[in-house]
Specification:
The protein is α/β, with parallel strands linked by helices. The chain is built from 12 helices and 6 strands. Bound molecules: zinc ion (ZN).
């Protein structure tokens, strides 16, 4: 069986975030001390292994315990686990950190040629939970996103796509921004509102393939997640219970019915929440 056939689930960061300019700033933002080298290898990085609590980092340059990447992964694991009241991880997460973009893209092109071009990926196979990315100025937020996928899948048997991406987008935001507000998603949704668009959990729950998930879907998934965790006590309770039920679920149960029962005014409440975030955003300017 090839690796392609083993691939069970794939998740990736926001599809429109790659920026050539940012690549020129690589390395200065992160803790790796060695000069990145292009490996042109079709194998994942394997020269150095850092073993953390619940994860391992495979890289071509050594990483010290106080490296920002190591600290970020450990902090993200604690934050996600505590915030979502997750039970203990069943499986470790392997993080493959390429030292440069060319090597990363070369590896992905050979291993999974059909995958769209993204800066980072989370891959779940029958044998492994793995994150793939490369050193760049965006590596910390990229890893927060993909590593959140890993933590969820290490703790839950099933995670519906909308929640998987919503939580990854939520925890991707910098940890010092306590309310996890994403200005990019907020702008996207408020512009959509002017165009007559409305969020719909029923539609979002129906999307099963990440390749069908649009930029607006990512924004909407973030919005629901943000509303449920930050905007409604009843919403937070129903979400945390739902996540607890996913641990041993053979299939992910529907969420909308639970939400309708716990928060009957959820549709209007979501817009109220987004508008309050916009007021907070404007006040901060
Ligand atoms: Zn993702």
């Amino acid at each position: 069986m090839t690796v392609d056939h083993e691939l069970q689930q794939t998740h990736c960061g926001s599809p429109h975030s790659c920026c050539l300019l940012l690549l020129l700033l690589a390395v200065t933002h992160i803790g790796c001390q060695a000069t990145p080298r292009t490996t042109f290898s079709t194998s994942p990085p394997d020269r150095h292994l850092f073993s953390g609590d619940g994860f391992a980092i495979h890289s071509d340059v050594p990483l010290r315990p106080d490296d920002p990447i190591v600290k970020q992964l450990a902090e993200t694991r604690l934050t996600v686990t505590n915030r979502l009241k997750l039970q203990e991880q069943r499986d470790p997460i392997d993080v493959y950190l390429f030292s440069d973009e060319v090597s990363y893209r070369n590896f992905l092109r050979v291993r999974w040629p059909a995958l769209p071009s993204r800066r980072a990926y989370f891959m779940q196979t029958s044998k492994q939970l793995a994150v793939y990315s490369f050193v760049s100025s965006r590596v910390l937020s990229d890893l927060r996103h993909e590593f959140t996928h890993g933590i969820l899948h290490a703790s839950c048997s099933h995670v519906p796509l909308w929640l998987d991406e919503g939580l990854a987008e939520y925890f991707e935001t910098a940890t010092d921004l306590d309310n996890r507000r994403s200005q990019q998603h907020l702008d996207e949704l408020l512009l959509a509102e002017q165009e007559g668009w409305s969020p719909g959990m029923f539609r979002l729950e129906m999307i099963a393939e990440f390749s069908a998930f649009s930029a607006r879907d990512y924004a909407e998934a973030w919005a629901w997640t943000h509303f449920l965790l930050n905007g409604s006590r009843e919403g937070q309770a129903v979400l945390l219970k739902y996540i607890a039920d996913l641990r041993d679920a053979t299939v992910a149960p529907g969420f909308l019915q639970r939400l309708e029962k716990a928060v009957p005014t959820y549709a209007g409440d979501l817009w109220d929440h987004l508008h309050s975030l916009r007021r907070d955003s404007n006040a901060a300017l």
